[in-house]
Amino acid sequence: MTIVELLGWVLLHFVWQGAIIALALAVLLALTCEAQARLRYLLSCAALVLMLGAALATATRVRTIRGAVLQADAPVASGPSQVTPLSSGGPRAGDRAGNLAHLIPPAETRADATRSAIVQPIVSRALPWLVISWLAGVTSPNGSSRGCIRITCFPRSSSPAACSPHFS
Fold it and tell me: Where are the alpha helices (DSSP H) in the chain?
């Protein structure tokens, strides 16, 4: 897996992960009083750290899954199978926990496999463009607040809005 593919998948998953974290933060901030500035600041910082952790965990997970898929595609040496079939008689008396493999659903159903086979190539072709667009937005001088919004702060006064944005 290339770095562009990895970064693309991380960005794609970060959209929904970041949205969930931001929604949770919005709910928590709505529940706190405006007077509790330290708590609001702590919650906001925790949300940022959680977003960073989610992105790093996603990158690790995508690399692990991709590595497992590549290993699964590798040829397997022929030999006796290590898998023991389930007996229809239920758990044997000698098993400690019994054979519970029949309770675990398959990881991927046929509909999921078909959907994945259709969607995966489309998304994979779009990933380089997603990464290029993201990099262009991050590195562009117009993408930063310096070029778009100028904040003007006035000396303290009795008005509640001491700072006001000016769009240029």
Answer: 3-31, 37-73, 110-139, 145-148
Percent of the chain with pLDDT over 70: 54
| Three-state secondary structure of 107-137 | CCCHHHHHHHHHHHHHHHHHHHHHHHHHHHH
Angle (CA) 39 40 46, round 5°: 90
Quote the CA–CA distance of 140 and 107 in Å, as a whole number.
42
- Answering whether pTM is above 0.70, one says no
- Apex 102 CA angle, 101 and 105, nearest 5: 90
DSSP class of 35: T
- pLDDT recorded at residue 87: 47
Report, as ranges of residue numbers, the positions in the chain whose pLDDT lies below 50.
77-79, 81-91, 93, 147
Rounded distance between C-alpha atoms, residue 105 and residue 113, angstroms = 14
Three-class DSSP category at 151: strand
User: Looking at residue 79, what DSSP letter applies?
Assistant: S
Q: HSE on the CB side for 144, CA within 13 Å?
A: 6
